[in-house]
Every structure is written in C-alpha cells, then in structure tokens.
Amino acid sequence: MKSAFEAILNPFQRRFAALGLLGALAVTVTWWFIIARGVWMAVEWASA
C-alpha cells in the first residue's frame, strides 16, 4: 500500500516528466532549426 506522500507526489512526477519531455523536444527542434538555418545560409553564400 502506498504512503500518502507517494500518492500526493505521483501526479506531480508524471506532470514534470511530461514537461521534461516537451522541453527536450522544444530544445531539439530549436537546435535543428538553428542548424538548418546555418546550412541554408552557407549554401546561399556558396552559391552567390
């Protein structure tokens, strides 16, 4: 049987896990956007 503390903490752990995953996804997408933009600028500069 779970303690009251674990019963209270469990939903918070799930919520923070979801927020952590969303944050990691946002950082990854932002990082790839920066890389893609850099590559695009390099291609434009090389082809100019």
Concise account of the structure shown:
This protein is mostly helical and 48 residues long. The protein has one helix at 4-47.
Account of the 3D structure:
This protein is 92% helix and 0% strand. The chain has 1 helix and no strands. With 48 residues, the protein is mostly helical. It is rod-shaped. The termini are far apart.
Produce the secondary structure layout.
Blueprint: H1 4-47
Name the features.
48 residues, mainly alpha
Which sheet architecture does the biggest sheet show?
none
**Tally of helical segments:** 1
- Total strands: the figure is 0
Radius of gyration: 21 Å
Distance between the termini: 69 Å
Taken in chain order, the helices and strands follow as H
